[in-house]
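Hi again,

Forgot to attach this to my earlier email, sorry! This is the prediction with 5'-deoxyadenosine bound. I've pasted everything inline since the attachment limit keeps bouncing my files.
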Amino acid sequence: MNNIELIDKLNHEGELDFDEFKQLLSTYNQEDFTYAKETAAKITKQIFSNKIYIRGLIEISSYCKNDCYYCGLRKSNLNALRYRLSKEEILLSCKEGYKLGFRTFVLQGGEDLYYQDDLMVDIIKSIRTLYPDCAITLSLGEKSKETYQKYYDAGANRYLLRHETYNEDHYYMLHPQEMSFKQRIECLHHLKEIGFQTGCGFMVGSYHQTIDHLVNDLLFIKKLKPEMVGIGPYMVHHDTPFKDLKNGDLKLTLFLLSLIRIMTKDVLLPSTTALATLDPKGRIEGIKHGCNVVMPNLSPNEVRKKYLLYDNKASSGQEASEGLKELVDTLSKEGYEIVYQRGDYCKFDYKG
Ligand code: 5AD
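Structure tokens for the complex follow:
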């Protein structure tokens, strides 16, 4: 089969086998790339019309107990500026966000042990009580199933935990031995079992990533059936062991976004900050290749420059909640409309 036929097969059957994905990723040309983009755009349009969901991202802590080799917030980075938001500060961010129209709050942070279960549950319950019409998304890393259950019972709806890579050897090239590949995957299963709308994902162009790894990432997404998928390019941070690597590739990231849309159809797929940082047109290109979510930054202004996963991380302009109008304008020029609903995952029976 040629690559165009493989893209059609992925569209109609919702899957490809290992060798087919491998062929597609290792031999795609400009025509295949464009065909994948158009196919993804058609699916996105049919399911979501021209609507883009918006989420307010609150980066609650830059402390992290982990030491991931790629991340600027790794605990060994003594130059990282650390902060954590209090419950009051988080609620204030939600208040700001609510006024701006956001109906999903994403609480993201390093794995910071300061937020013990009782405190986190208190924060989640408070947001749930104050904003009963809003969705609460968490992105706080690996926790026990009991803790995830407490978060859920307190009123959280969604959880993002990128698997980072579905190859065990590759996992330990990106993470120290103290971390556990098995545990990470187990966490994702726990989240699904509890009933969270669950998001997994990976970086494109991470250290020693091969086409085979990417194929396994796609096959894992197919198997897990997440409600959300987060992917973006790997971006260099100068204070990490990976400081001499190159940023991930824009085109490959966009191609993968299209393939994920074509394979999963109705998944919630953000056009990420990393993509917007890599290229000035990154965010809009992501949307044209199948993304349907954007997540502007709602964190208090004074902490934004401290949450640096990678160098030059965009946190102003259209990346920030104050730049919302600019973002709305940019998207509407391209024919997209930002919608302010919760934007929960909704199963769609796509008939092609
Ligand atoms: N480049 C791109 N993405 C990164 N992340 C962490 N560090 C980097 C980096 N240097 C991503 C990881 C993590 C998410 C919160 O941010 O995939 O899961």
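The mean pLDDT is 97. The chain has 14 helices and nine strands.

That should be everything now.

G.
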